[in-house]
Amino acid sequence: MLSAAVGAVVAGGGTFLALGLPAWEASARRVAADRVQAQPGLRSELAAADLDIATWVTATIRSGLVGAGVGAVIAVLAWGVVGPLGLVLVPFGVAMALALRRRELRQAAEAGRKALRAAALEFAELVSLAIGAGLGVPAGMERAGVALSGAGGARLGALSSSGSEPWAGIEALGAATSVAELSDLGRTLAVGVAHQARTREVLLGWAGALRASQLEESEADAAATTEAMTGPLALVAFGFLLSVGVPAVLQLLGGVSGVRF
Predict the structure, then answer these.
(1) The model scores a pTM over 0.90
(2) Could you count the other beta carbons within 10 Å of the beta carbon of residue 154?
(3) Distance between CA 18 and CA 20 in Å, rounded?
(4) Between the CA of residue 163 and those of 124, 126, 132, 159, 195, what are the distances in Å?
């Protein structure tokens, strides 16, 4: 009976995949994309991770379908034990799959923002060097964009040589990704075009302040990590003392009790 039920689920799933999935997925993708557009925080994370909305929505929907399929299979296999109660595993599998996708997006967005901040600092220093060598702001930006490294540097370098006002694109990227440093850099470069004489000093001062801020954040993170490790290390030390001290004390007490006066 169980094998017949599993066969029915597989057959029904195959029919759905062949007939109904493409149309349903297209409709769900449109609805999900509209909801993503209505959530600024989610849009910002996608922009920071350099992910296309349609691609991410499609991958997320398919992950949800995989989670539902896994939950359905487990529910069928456990039918003889828990009965219809096992059907709750289907929405649970969908929820777990969507939660994992969201977590992966947050991690990718945080990594993208970190790369963009590092690229902004490198870009500001390179532009200031180019200006010091006698280049103007636009030419300095183009020269600095070629020398940038990393994923964030590639995105910033592409903007530095695009359009007649690349600083506007940098400011827009900062707004889209919620990276305030990029927006500040774009505004600083925009002002520098009109007041080029002071641009090099302003950029160097801005880069120095950003580097100091990043150093403070790194020190705070290191201190927080150290504090978080204090408890586990104390437990390890206590366990070591117990494992070594208790047998020694018991052996000592056993030797004393064996002595006859």
Answers:
(1) no
(2) 14
(3) 6
(4) 19, 20, 24, 8, 20
CA pair distance 141, 147, nearest whole angstrom: 10
Six token digits for residue 241? 């003392």
Per-residue pLDDT of the chain (261 residues; tens, 9 = 90+): 444 444 544 445 445 444 455 665 666 667 666 676 668 888 889 989 988 888 888 888 888 889 888 888 888 888 888 788 878 888 888 899 999 999 999 999 999 999 998 888 888 888 888 887 778 878 888 888 888 888 888 888 888 877 778 888 888 999 999 988 888 888 888 877 766 666 777 777 777 777 777 777 777 777 777 777 777 777 777 777 777 766 776 777 666 555 454
Question: Cα(59)–Cα(52) distance, rounded to whole angstroms?
Answer: 11
Rg of the chain's alpha carbons, rounded to an integer?
Answer: 30
Nearest of 116, 118, 126 to residue 200 by alpha carbon? 126
Which pair of tokens denotes residue 179? 């990276």
**Cα separation of 82 and 89, whole Å?**
11
Contact at 8 Å (CB) between 91 and 67?
no
Q: Extract long-range pairs of 165-168: CB within 8 Å, 24+ residues apart.
A: 165/190, 166/138, 166/141, 166/142, 167/137, 167/141, 167/193
Cα(181)–Cα(211) distance, integer angstroms: 11
